């Protein structure tokens, strides 16, 4: 009965592919459950909003607050190249994701303990250290997941499972935002620390569930030689023009990830600071955007991830360009409510860029080196994100509005570069 219900749900979500067997149903359910728990936990420990507000409330220095996003984003990407050889030599790669998720959970529990027992700079350093541990553990999962996904789920379902999990996870974050906005969850460091502890438990659960995935053993006979040195690891950059174009597209579309803090900064320039009490409003806008867009972007990615990247880039260029113009003309965006509106639309564009890049890499021909392609592209993006920290210095010099204009131009460029990518989904060329 339960298995029949699973098959019906899976068939409805994947347009009723009759070739799908019970093994695919179980794999879909495992991916969905683990990803949902992971995505919900990620929203509850979002460094852009939740952790930064928590550190401010604990009295941590501003330098530590500003280091949260670079440590989280770049730290999750840069180690992947070093992990690639280890992953490629492993016959089962699910354990990298499973142990990585569990490790993240332990790190998040450490953050919660630090928030409950420490204050000031001590709390800031402790939470930042645990965030660095989380980022490294996350890098193991990110470097291995595309390969596991490609070998355990059929094309046409990979973007769907990610998009559906993103939607359900965002609903959970939305509930958190509502509870925070209405004061049911107090806006205190202690209450936020309890929520963070819940996120840690969810990540450990995600790792346990993913460890149950029935993953076929990978062929590693010819992999060890190809990962013997730096030249071999970087060989795909020289040999695969589509990989270079894909990385260029991702580089330009990092503007969708970097932009939200500058939207908030522009709004605050009118004198309406975004306080801890307004955290619920911003989280509400962000989670609502994920809810209304994640599944749609996922389904579109399964049809054409190239077009998804193009549409996301165009959407980001439009909203960020509008924010830049409004900011230059009026000097702000109308405070927290204006920032929430622009964050909402920018988050929709970000979800599209995220879904498109993940599905494109999962479905593209990686010549048997999926983990290497993933780690290589993610490591390069990690360096770009670190360099992106310079936009904060630029904003201090010229203001946030011109920086948003630069991000809009980058997003438009990303859409143009994505247009030159090959279609990797079956039948997309004919649509």
Automatic annotation (TrEMBL):
Keyword terms of this UniProt record: Membrane, Transmembrane, Transmembrane helix
Entry superkingdom: Bacteria
Membrane-spanning parts: 49-71, 95-116, 122-140, 161-185, 191-213, 247-267, 279-297, 309-327, 333-350, 371-395, 401-421
InterPro entries assigned to the protein according to its UniProt record, in alphabetical order: MFS_trans_sf (IPR036259), Sugar_transport-like (IPR052528)
Keyword flag Membrane: yes
Protein's name according to its UniProt entry: Major Facilitator Superfamily protein
